[in-house]
TrEMBL record:
Keywords: Signal
Protein name (database record): Solute-binding protein family 3/N-terminal domain-containing protein
Gene3D superfamilies hit by this protein: Periplasmic binding protein-like II
Annotated InterPro entries: Solute-binding_3/MltF_N (IPR001638)
Species for this entry: Chromobacterium alticapitis
Pfam families the UniProt entry points to: SBP_bac_3
Amino acid sequence: MAGKWLGWVCIGWGMAASALGAPLQLGTDEWPPYETLNEAQAPGFSVEVIRRVFDAMGMPMEMHQYPWARAQSMVYAGQNDGLFSAFRNAERASHCYYPDEPLAVDRWVLFVRRDNLNRLSFHSLADLKGRLVGVVRGAAITPEFWSLVKSQRNYEESVDDDTNFRRLLAGRVDYVVASEANGARERFRIPDGEQIAELPGAVLKEDAMYLIFSKQTVSAQTVAAFSKALRQFKQTGEYRAIVQRYFPDMGGGPGK
């Protein structure tokens, strides 16, 4: 299967690969388990998948870590060629191409202090009124969510989930919005993180995540070629091994 996949990529990439000059510049943040560039032994699910696909395509690229809002503004301005792992929203779609094939699927959920599990609940966005919500700046949660918290002025933005979870433990916010997979790991990276819990049933959004490409610097043909190569890679044993390393408790892996 691997040989067949590599052969397809070489044929499908063809002239585009030979025409490449400087490496593509990809921006990301620190967001385990998807991207942790500073951890050489476990750089992240998305990092490993993207590297493997570009290696097979013969396409040079480099990855750089920034705060998420900065990484996003750089790809909008054409200062970087790509951004990951990005959920879909209208603003990003106006600046960037989305491949047909996603990297994974995750859910935006609410986390609370464990001692508030019986006091706080979530049945609709209206339940957030009168409560303070921690959220990462630039996060692609639903337009309805942002409309509510901006109208209520009941949210605090931060550069990363680590900061939000620390604020939650300190009692500065009542809820934290985070990716389910990320939050499940990130909360245990800080002292007393076991006192944080996912609020049952509090799902704000389930959505696919992508490597998106700047419309200023990357062609639609390149995006389509990446999408096809990613789809082919997902059929390999190597991909399944990456899934197992980062999501050992998810039988089908992310996006299943």
